[in-house]
Amino acid sequence: MQLHLGAGAGQAMKDAFVLGRLLAHPLTTLDNVHTALTAYQDVRLSVSHFVTRNSESMGDMYQFSATGYYDGMDRGSEREELELLKDKILELRNWLGDGVVAEWLKAERKLQESVGLCNGR
Hints:
There is one protein chain. By secondary structure, the chain is an all-alpha fold. It has one domain. The chain is built from 4 helices and no strands. Helix 2 runs antiparallel to helix 3 and helix 2 runs antiparallel to helix 4. The longest helix has 30 residues, at 33-62. It is rod-shaped. The relative contact order is 0.18.
């Protein structure tokens, strides 16, 4: 993961939290550990992809090479373009997602559904 969001260590801790709770869950057995791993992947993989994409975009903006934003050319609209770039950078830095507890609850629900303890609502 690129460092432009500063999210690598935090994502690793969230991964460990959700995965650890799933593997320690009373519904998880040796016979269905693959189900717990699938629930983990279903919840955390999309978050990981989101962070990676936004980190890459942020890096492009920091290096002034982001398509559609300031490209270093000298022209009259430079200040407005830099303001747009600033706003987009701030928008990307303010992501929070659902939070790790909400992600854990989603993963637990998927585990419960997969062993037939709830109907998916």
